[in-house]
């Protein structure tokens, strides 16, 4: 597939500055590179300026990845020697400083470029997956979008002089990912003397949202996009996700973790068998309608003390499961522990930090705003405000993927049906809207496939895909669309082949339910 780089004439030579798997692409060694690490230069993407560039040879071996939550850290052995290129970009009038880093293996390059997405308000990944990608032969890159390591809160950068920092929001939403593609592929081309044969995007959560937005807005950037647990519908999700806390605070009822767990357990017991096998998982939770009122009056032991479940507890659970108007609640069987925590000293519920930061900064323009005081009416107003102000900026939910389809790109996505942070039903709804836009499921399956993982959590936990990138590479490079994604628990004790939507994995009626061969797609 042809990929076009849009660049300006400004070039910054280094001398003038102050100091994953697959086998179909050919490999390149250091001896065949056209440029040494120390002589790399880069042209600025259109509308940007290169402020600095450094390129350093790294010895490889065991790379110790420092702690950078939420990304995994620790030693990664067997990493080949590589060239590390760091490019600092800025945009006139924006006052930003965007860091893009590229790692290029000196030997064993597989001919591919891979960009890594972020999480929360991290725009990029700089953890263990980075080293593993180089180890697998990829030229790999990521960006901080100029927002730095802000983690799960946008507080350090969201506001400037009391107003939304529109330049950094634009970077975080879309601009920096597009520029990452341009810079990363240009550096790769220069270092190896030829362009990457294929370019891939990989990301989960925020990284998944970034992948969807790339397909929507910049369809020529990547040949293949792996978007996992995507935060699509960002403008709605960032307000909808505080709903559980709003419900508890407005109802002045704060079920303990133990009581919440009892509701989850009861829902699983009621609906587990509907898929034909008792395995502790609700395979199609959207079809489970078990009523929480059935637990009223039941006594459970919490920390060794008897607690009676009340009608107020059941009412809170019902509202959380139903979700707010215009968005999605938790599916039955999904843990309640992701979206809200309760403070015992002064009883109130605190929302998950990512949406809490969005409301405080981007909607109320007040980092000190207390979201625990929101009424139902105020919540509804903020929900509409977020849609009106930010859908076009960061909604990431435009169903028109026709340009991506024409470009020959492939979008592979999976989402856990027990994701307690970002509801999988939002991803399902997006997929349905794409089908309506582009003429039905069969046409969409030619370039966009969604896999739902029963019982799986956010970006992992439960039975999740074991190597979805390889499935994407095979699809892009060999034209073999994945009908299933092999999945397993972390310890490998349970396996299942996830089915391409709208098909679901169905127990065949016999065999070990922990083995993939006991299921079929129907």
3D architecture notes:
- This protein is of the alpha+beta class.
- It contains 13 helices and 25 strands.
- It has helices at residues 128-135, 166-192, 206-217, 234-240, 243-251, 257-271, 311-322, 353-363, 376-394, 402-407, 424-438, 441-445, 468-478, and strands at 7-12, 42-45, 49-58, 61-65, 74-79, 82-90, 98-105, 112-119, 122-124, 139-143, 159-160, 163-164, 198-204, 224-228, 299-302, 305-308, 340-343, 348-351, 410-416, 448-453, 464-465, 484-488, 495-499, 505-507, 519-521.
- The strands form eight sheets. Strands 3, 6, 7, 8, 9, 10, 13, 14, 19 and 20 form a ten-stranded mixed sheet that branches. Strands 21-22-23 form a three-stranded antiparallel sheet, with no helix packed on it.
- A hairpin with an 8-residue loop joins strand 4 and strand 5 (74-79).
- The longest helix has 27 residues, at 166-192.
- The radius of gyration is 24 Å and the shape is globular.
- It starts with 6 loop residues before the first strand and ends with a strand.
- The relative contact order is 0.11.
- The model is unreliable at 1-24 (pLDDT under 50).
